[in-house]
Amino acid sequence: MFSDDPDQSLPHGGDLAAARRLFADAPEPFLDLSTGINPHSYPLQELPIDLFARLPGADPLAAAKAAAAQAYGAPSAAHVVAAPGTQILLPLVAALVRPGRAAVVAPTYGEHARAAALAGHDVIEIADLDAATAATLVIVTNPNNPDGRLFDKNALMMLAKRLESRGGLLVVDEAFMDVGPGDASLAGEVGRRAIVVLRSFGKFFGLAGIRLGFALAAPYLAARLAAQLGPWAVSGPALAIGVEALTDRAWMEQARCRLTEETTRLDEILADSGLEIVGGTPLFRLVRTAAALELFHHLGHAGILVRMFPAHPSWLRFGLPGADEDWNRLQIAMAAFANRH
Amino acid sequence: MFSDDPDQSLPHGGDLAAARRLFADAPEPFLDLSTGINPHSYPLQELPIDLFARLPGADPLAAAKAAAAQAYGAPSAAHVVAAPGTQILLPLVAALVRPGRAAVVAPTYGEHARAAALAGHDVIEIADLDAATAATLVIVTNPNNPDGRLFDKNALMMLAKRLESRGGLLVVDEAFMDVGPGDASLAGEVGRRAIVVLRSFGKFFGLAGIRLGFALAAPYLAARLAAQLGPWAVSGPALAIGVEALTDRAWMEQARCRLTEETTRLDEILADSGLEIVGGTPLFRLVRTAAALELFHHLGHAGILVRMFPAHPSWLRFGLPGADEDWNRLQIAMAAFANRH
Question: What's this model's pTM, rounded to 2 decimal places?
Answer without folding.
Answer: 0.95
